[in-house]
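User: tokens in, sequence out, please.
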């Protein structure tokens, strides 16, 4: 076992490198599957709605396990926490190689969400220890930022991995990286921290109520746009059960002297505003996954054809992570968020000009801006909430970590649900409008149908069959154009929503500045 490096620079490079390795491994574990669901569902013989359960299972467990994981770390130490977490992560990655049906794949993904919590925590702690105490904000920014690089990287490497062994091939890379992580954290240990008794018997009652409630919310948000919101009665029952379970968890916590979740603090106006901003931010950041990549896939693009775009996103994300780490001011954490919102709005309105000829090259600028913006937001939100929790006491860190993780997860799912539903509704509306005007008595429509039919002249001799095929192609073109118009609407809505959140956050910033100036004036007057 090795100890920490002696020199400052050696310590920074060693701990920082391990933090990056841990963050990338955790991020790839999530994104390699989520960004390749259309291909994975073919390997598993699943429909899109069934394959979506893979992402839901991971998100549901990852969003709630922090409720116990942080207490475990405080009570049993970071060494045992890291060894168990990394060991479980390796076992889960290996288990993916032996899953050939949807049910077992969902179970393994749920376990993967639990194991990934250890990697994200270790990535943050190693980065904090890589920098001097005075630069802790920079350490936090980099520690939470490394995993964001995995989103574009996963699209760059996934095609080759899928060719090696279909969806099992995705996990060959993850197994190798997780073994490197295990070796690294055992060679260079984190400094020990004092242990304290954290767990109480009623903690597990709260978890037994809170975790299923969040899981049911994740299921509703994930499945609603596939099975459609008002066509599947189980969605309503699941939502009702989630509300009951979460309300019961809140009631239990309100009557505890040492609660697991500090509900009164979390329901304060300051924390509620932070949670709302996190949720809204995650919704507008869905412009990239649901919006841009969804549009390009609808136009027939795959990951191989989007390599250039993925590289642009990677370098933009890296620039954002480094930039926010070097410039973030704990007293002004809203500044990166305000800049990010303006960038997202500009990119969304730029993308609203899409046509059926739009290709990845036309989205380099807009998606680069959004990748840069997403890297600005996450560290700022983490630092804003973390500083508030520390001011209250160490026991409040658990509450913030849970709300931050759940807010991130539910916000991402809500963004996908909202934008996916909006796209479906607008596509149906535009399709109806276009089809109404496609009448063969119109000379231009008749000419276009004959042109499409002519393409089958070499293979179909029957003119009636050729005309039928021409009409089928015409219908496909109409659907494609309706899809393009629907995505343009989605981008406009994201742009408007980004500006609304910007105005709201700016108003909060101006109010805080006014209060600070008023308080300073009173102090000066009293002196």
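Assistant: Sequence out:
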């Amino acid at each position: 076992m090795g100890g920490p490096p002696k020199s400052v620079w050696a310590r920074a490079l060693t701990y920082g490198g391990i933090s990056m390795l841990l963050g990338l491994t955790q991020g790839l574990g999530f994104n390699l599957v989520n960004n390749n669901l259309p291909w994975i569902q073919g390997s598993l013989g699943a429909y899109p709605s069934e394959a979506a359960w893979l992402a839901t299972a991971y998100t549901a467990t990852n969003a709630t396990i922090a409720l116990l994981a942080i207490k475990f770390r405080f009570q049993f130490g970071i060494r045992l926490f890291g060894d168990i977490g990394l060991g479980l992560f390796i076992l889960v990655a290996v288990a993916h190689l032996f899953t050939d049906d949807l049910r077992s794949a969902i179970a393994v993904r749920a376990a993967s969400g639990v194991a990934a919590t250890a990697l994200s925590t270790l990535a943050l702690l190693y980065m904090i220890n890589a920098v001097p105490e005075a630069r802790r904000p920079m350490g936090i920014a980099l520690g939470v930022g490394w995993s964001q690089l995995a989103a574009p990287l996963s699209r760059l490497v996934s095609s080759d991995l899928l060719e090696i062994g279909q969806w099992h091939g995705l996990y060959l890379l993850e197994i190798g990286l997780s073994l490197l992580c295990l070796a690294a954290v055992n060679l260079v240990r984190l400094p020990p921290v004092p242990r304290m008794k954290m767990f109480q018997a009623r903690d597990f009652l709260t978890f037994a109520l809170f975790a299923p409630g969040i899981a049911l919310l994740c299921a509703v948000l994930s499945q609603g746009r596939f099975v459609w919101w008002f066509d599947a009665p189980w969605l309503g029952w699941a939502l009702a059960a989630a509300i009951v379970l979460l309300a019961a968890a809140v009631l239990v916590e309100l009557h505890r002297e040492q609660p697991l979740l500090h509900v009164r603090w979390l329901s304060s106006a300051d924390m509620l505003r932070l949670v709302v901003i996190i949720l809204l931010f995650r919704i507008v950041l869905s412009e990239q996954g649901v919006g841009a990549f969804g549009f390009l896939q609808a136009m027939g693009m795959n990951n191989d054809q989007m390599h250039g775009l993925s590289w642009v996103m990677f370098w933009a994300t890296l620039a954002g992570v480094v930039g926010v780490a070097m410039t973030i001011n704990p007293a002004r954490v809203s500044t990166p968020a305000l800049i990010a919102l303006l960038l997202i709005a500009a990119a969304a309105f730029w993308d609203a000009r899409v046509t059926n000829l739009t290709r990845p090259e036309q989205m380099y600028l807009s998606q680069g801006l959004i990748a840069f913006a997403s890297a600005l937001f996450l560290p700022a939100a983490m630092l804003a909430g973390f500083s508030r929790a520390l001011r209250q006491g160490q026991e409040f860190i658990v509450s913030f970590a849970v709300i931050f993780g759940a807010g991130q997860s539910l916000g991402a799912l809500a963004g996908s649900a909202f934008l996916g539903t909006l796209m479906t509704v607008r596509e149906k509306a535009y399709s109806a409008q276009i089809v109404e005007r496609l009448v063969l008595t119109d000379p231009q429509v008749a000419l276009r149908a004959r042109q499409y039919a002519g393409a089958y002249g070499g293979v179909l001799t029957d003119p009636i069959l050729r005309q039928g095929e021409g009409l089928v192609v015409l219908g496909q073109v109409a659907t494609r154009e309706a899809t393009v118009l629907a995505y343009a609407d989605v981008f406009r809505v994201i742009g408007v929503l980004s500006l609304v959140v910007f105005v709201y956050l700016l108003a909060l910033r101006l109010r805080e500045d006014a209060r600070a100036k008023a308080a300073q004036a009173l102090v000066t007057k009293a002196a």
